[in-house]
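Quick note —
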Amino acid sequence: MRLLLAEDSALLREALTALLERLGHTIARTAQSAPGLLEAFDQLTESEEPPDLVLTDVRMPPGHGDDGLRAALEIRTFHPSQPVMVLSQYIADTYARELLTLPEGAIGYLLKDRVNRIRDFASALETVASGGTVIDPDVVQHLLSESLAGPLDGLTAREREVLALMADGRSNADIAGVLFLTDAAVSKHIGNIFAKLGLGPVEENRRVRAVLTYLQAARP
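Predicted structure written out below.
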């Protein structure tokens, strides 16, 4: 993949570059600030194809707040299908929900500690680049203050198993393998889960919202 990497720490930027290149990816351009990220993205899209993935830190200059995350949201405003992976040392409440519920998907939000799990990190990048959504479990737990849907009492035991695996970040194919089901059966169970949780066909990012509901109900 061709990546646009935005990270203000020179040391971490070089480490990420080395890791991503070792994973077989190409760093098309780097940026050290939120305005630099937007400028680099515009330059890439004007002169070449857009990057396959934008990988950005949340806390960046000039404000050293949520500047990187807000820049990612701005990119998605004008390029709704652009895959974006956000890395952070902390969880940004204000804009995290807005990012994670974008209807087009192709969004990831990971804490930087997860990068050390190289295989999982590599898989997350591929998932987001292909249009999926990846959320760090700690980020999910932090966002549980929002009530998203009704209780899980109406779910069958099998539907709860499927939803638990969804919360673990498993794809439909993974769930089918773990539960010894067909892909069609998994899709049917997920459809039933969405219906029972009141997540209609036009609900933004139903998979994310279903997972958040599950984790909210499971919280002690």
